[in-house]
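Write out this protein's structure.
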Amino acid sequence: MLRRRLRPRPFAIAPAWYWRLPSLTLALMLVIIVALVWMTRHFDDETQRETLINDVLWMEQDLRFRLDRNEEQLSQIGRALLVGGDISAQTNARLAQLLKPDSGLVQILWLAPDGQVLDGRPYATDDVLVGEARGAIPSSETSRLARAVGRGVYGPTYPVLGNNWRFNVHVPIFVDSQHAGTVVGVYSLQQLVVRELPWWFSERYRVSVHDPDGNEIASKSKVEAQASHQQYTIPFDPPGYGLTLNVTAYKAPTRWVPVLLISAMVFFGGVIVWSLWQLRQHTMGRQAAELALRGEMSFRRAMEDSLLTGLRARDMNGRVTYVNPAFCRMIGYSAAELLGITPPMPYWDPSEMERTLAIHNRILAGEAPREGVEVRFRHKDGHAIDTLIFEAPLIDASGEQTGWMGSFLDITVQKRAETMARQQEERLQATSRLITMGEMASTLAHELNQPLAAISSYGSGCLNRLEEDAPNPSELRDIITRITRQARRAGAIIRRVHDFVRRSEPKCINIDLNAVIADAIGLIEPDAHKRGMDIDAVIFSRPLPVSADPVMLEQVAVNLIRNGMDAMREVRDRPRVIRVETFGDGEMATFRVTDHGQGIDAGAAQLIFDPFFTTKDEGMGMGLNICRSIAELHRGRLGFEPNPEGGTIFTFSLPYAS
């Protein structure tokens, strides 16, 4: 069916101001709203500041009223305190009234004209209470100044116990123009300024008193106000002396209704601006998208044509819907020959038709392996092609799967390289087996030397006995028994070496380590006597049960003892004794061989267990390597250390049998 290509109708390009006018209008509205919010906030701040100033002035007047009232009452009561003799009940009542907490006074003292304290309520003679401690102005100077001016004079603040601050007022008392004395009122800053403030003032403001250095000496609230809050400072006079009152307004509660209303207006205004901008971008972008679509299709086609990876698309029924040129070149068929065909495909290999069909059905069922699958195809000209296929679902614009997209990699050359590599590996394995046979021959030559030498020695001894006139049958029987034993031992060694080459596990049985070491000493003793050496055997008093191969353990003991004797071959200045001992240590059974030879230097100690490393002229360097292998096979340990008396100590440990 032919489809008619539709040409997009060109869009009418609107003038720029047409698109900008709504945005500018909304932007202007947002600016007005922001300005309104700022003006409202500024008005609230100004209103709060005016209220703060009025309240501070009220507080100042209230404090001044209380101080003036107390000064007047102190002046009135002073005559009764200084002239009347005994204090009447009425005077005591007036004193108690003055000392109530709401007055701010905490003590009243009356002084003689010479400044001597006559009495007080509550009475105390501590000078600090009248301001003469810690650098305060002496009471005599304050009283002299009050007498000179004829009215009350306030002294400086001073600290008392409890980190409280106080100040005094000195009121002179004159009787018939004669100075009769001075009444001193002691004020508590905390009680006067802070404690007696009304509740509504404390809820709105934080009140604090500061000294001339700016240090806070009294405060109403322990909660710190923010520096950005409204605050007002006035001199605290009286008492003066540089004191200031600092009143800070707490932050006013946020009025959420206008805030939310303005925020909603700003948000919806922004949404409208954004919507208009998106609509404009969409309308202008559609035209650009249609113009760019042809270019994108051409670019995609050029990109697909340049790929070396074959691409093939199929629908849900397996029908081929698309192939790229690389796929066509890979199998030799054209796109016209492939589009629309269904399985079996013409490029499938007839010899693997069933396997290929099974893979095809797995892919259509959604079971394609993520790592890909190898399939052999057949080129149109008949030669085989090895391919690696990766399949992925083909999703359309609506998100629904419409088929499968496959990527094909030609791995024919790679498969050939893998075949050649496998052949090379087989050759290397054959070479490795030859090397192993050489190592086994070396091991047999070294390990069999001892039993064969013993057989030869016993055979010579037997011949010598037979040449005698009357050979002893029991002695010959013992020699032949030993020859038979060594032959069996040689055969067992060959079998064990063969097991080493095959990496087989040893044939472990429960044996007594003491018995194995005793047998090994019996085998090596004739050789030791021949060399002029002694073996000092110290066998543990209790059995040492281990699970091990007795032939291997005996061979380890013989090798270690013979190595010790070889090390003492040139020793002449000290006893040539090999000490062999067994003992139990924790969970391990151990035998130790100690020689008094030349020892092992640091360089040889690093290589002593390596195969074919030896310090002897006739050695092959396999003995200690085999001993360590036997220790590892039995989950044991083989180590050595210098002998303090000269020579080396070899230690072989095995776990106890369970």
